[in-house]
Write a structure and sequence with these properties.
Distance between the termini: 43 Å
Structural class: alpha+beta
Number of helices: 12
Strand content: 25-35%
Radius of gyration: 25 Å
């Protein structure tokens, strides 16, 4: 079994985000203020010391501002020699006197600049790095790196092999909890390391031709339930995230949740062929001497010290290996194939519920299965489309870098929806004598197994009670590697009346978008495909078509270059498609079939790139 791999990344951010206002005590802005630079460097030294005292090596991501500071440069060189720390280059931390004088802007998010400025900034920073250290970096990063910029960096600076490239679920949820002022919108990407495609950073490469040439890591390792349900910035293995979420005992200053979160990341080796990963990416602003998140500096410092100590303890016990980013990139490419998925059967460790989510990510899709909703698919991103999505000034998407969804329960309601309309979800309904039960109402638990290239979720059976019939139903969900589909199998284990017949309706309600606001659905084509073809061009008219024995029911969504379809195991099933309306701008694909005791019925959700 492989050890648990951790990347610890520090950046000597000479002008930490938000910190100037705190240090300046209401004085006029001065990002060259000596007190700010001194404090920032002191905190960077403390972070480095705490890692090294616990036997951990780090990756030092030099910011542009730090390249002009002789002490910061000297510290990086010394720690590289003494501890084997990697000297890398961050595209965060742009604001400094030299940058603002040249670019005449307060923008600091590299992906939001025009492509012309992105190239110029990268060239300036890489040149300054080379002038300072005599070599080009092997690692870089930001909150997000768009594909066009990544491709440029790799072509111009081929030494780069690893990059921090996205923040998991840092989208509208985080934006709303920052008073609608934090314009970092990039939901829909992987939560664990991946090889980004040349077409879209969030969509993993399916083969060598799509490979951007780098290994990407997430900006933070986050709680895959708490972060999805709420603001991700409160729920990560970065110790100060836990403090910001107020997830600690205010009297004892203890935070068992932090250790439980690290341990849950360790446990992911059970679902990933013995491999598990975690990262901690820290700038000085998090340990501001004035305190942060209603926590004093002493608690900020203690939490970081305790976090490093826990990783150090795991390393001493032989359970963890610390790597630099460049070392990890080599390890990852040796360990993982292009099509090997990342899986996470994640349980709630914060709120005391029994909630369980299963996350699946490969070059063709990212999907989330919610066991609290009977194994419904509640998030689906069609990576098969490899959607090209330029971002920054001069593009259609100045800030929004998210990978669009077909299903997203937080932004499109899921099953538990308004009195009118529908939310996006992939589930099933059972009907008998005029009664109907949706499996979204049947809580269950999942068990993971792997056979060859197929990962299987076996759900505990659920009992469905009609007025005069009881049905025991089991669901299995199959993810076959490189297949670009999800197979869902329903088995009737028993009925109180073995002669009864029940109607099963396998359905998918979907749309597309990146936020909670609706998109224009015109242009979408719905089809029943088979002995004949029936189609609907979306016009918000509530129309429906069905076809007995349909080979497939499908939707082509040109806006996101995606075709999604359902196919069925039995020819006696009836396929149908349904158009939504303005108040419920969704579309529905489905199959209905009459099923009997001990019968098995399977459907496949298929994703492909639409021409």
């Amino acid at each position: 079994m492989d050890k648990f791999v951790v990347n610890i990344i520090h950046r000597p951010e000479m002008v930490p985000e938000y910190a100037e206002k705190v240090t300046g005590h209401g004085k006029a802005e001065d990002i060259g203020r000596k007190a700010l630079l001194t404090e920032s460097l002191d905190i960077f030294k403390a972070q480095q010391r705490l890692a090294h005292e616990n036997g951990l090596k780090t990756t030092i991501q030099m910011t542009y501002a730090s390249l002009f500071n002789e002490e910061a440069v000297a510290l990086a060189k010394a720690d590289h020699e003494a501890y084997g720390d990697e000297i890398a280059l961050s595209l965060l931390g742009l604001p400094c006197k030299e940058f603002r004088e040249k670019y005449k802007t307060k923008d600091f998010c590299i992906w939001m600049f025009s492509m012309e400025d992105k190239k110029s900034i990268v060239d300036d920073i890489f040149a300054k790095f080379h002038e300072t250290f005599g070599f080009y970096p092997e690692s870089t990063g930001s909150y997000y790196l768009d594909a066009d910029l990544t491709n440029y960096i790799k072509e111009k600076y081929p030494s780069v092999k690893c990059a921090v490239a996205t923040c998991w679920e840092e989208g509208p949820k985080a934006y709303h909890t920052c008073n609608n002022s934090w314009y970092t919108l990039f939901d829909g990407g992987p939560w664990a390391p991946w090889i980004p495609s040349k077409q879209n950073t969030h969509a993993p490469a399916a083969n060598e031709a799509e490979d951007s040439g780098i290994v990407a890591i997430p900006h933070l390792s986050r709680d895959l339930i708490a972060c999805y349900d709420g603001n991700g910035s409160n729920f990560g293995t970065h110790p100060q995230n836990v403090l910001r979420g107020m997830i600690y005992d205010s009297k004892t200053w203890e935070y068992p949740y932090m250790y439980n979160l690290i341990d849950q990341y360790r446990s992911l080796e059970k679902y990933n062929n013995g491999y598990a990963y975690n990262m901690m990416f820290v700038g000085p602003a998090w340990m501001n001497k004035m305190g942060r998140w209603e926590a004093p500096y002493e608690l900020l410092e203690k939490s970081y010290s305790d976090g490093c100590a826990y990783y150090g303890k795991l390393k001493k016990e032989g359970k963890l290996i610390d790597m630099t980013m460049a070392e990890f990139a080599d390890y990852y490419r040796e360990k993982k194939s292009y099509t090997e998925p990342e899986c996470a059967l994640w349980r709630d460790i914060l709120y005391g519920s029994d909630k369980q989510l299963f996350w699946y990510c490969d070059p063709f899709m990212r999907a989330c299965v919610n066991m609290d909703q009977g194994g419904a698919i509640v998030d689906l991103r069609p990576y098969a489309a490899k959607l090209e999505w330029p971002v920054g000034i001069g593009t259609k998407h100045v800030q929004d870098a998210s990978y669009p969804f077909l299903i997203q329960e937080k932004y499109r309601a899921g099953y538990f929806t308004h009195y009118a309309g529908e939310g996006t979800v992939r589930s099933a309904k059972l009907s008998y004598n005029g009664e109907e039960v949706d499996l979204c109402l049947c809580r269950t638990k999942a068990h993971f197994s792997q056979e060859g290239n197929t990962r299987t979720l076996t759900l505990d059976p659920v009992d469905i009670e009609f007025y005069d019939l009881a049905v025991k139903l089991q669901t299995k969900i199959y993810f076959e590697e490189a297949s670009s589909n999800i197979k869902i199998e329903r088995t009737v284990l028993g009925m109180s009346n073995p002669e009864a017949k029940v109607e099963l309706n396998e359905y998918m309600v979907a749309c597309y978008g990146t936020t909670e606001y609706p998109e224009d659905m015109t242009g979408i084509t719905l089809k029943c495909e088979g002995s004949e073809e029936k189609s609907i061009a979306y016009e918000y008219k509530c129309r429906e078509e069905q076809l007995a024995g349909a080979d497939a029911v499908s939707a082509v969504v040109p806006a996101i270059g995606t075709k999604v379809s359902l196919t069925a195991s039995h020819k006696d099933a009836v396929g149908y498609v349904r158009e939504g309306y303005a108040f419920s701008p969704m579309f529905t694909l489905g199959y209905t079939k009459t099923i009997s005791d001990k019968e098995v019925f399977a459907t496949w959700l298929n994703l492909e790139k639409a021409n």
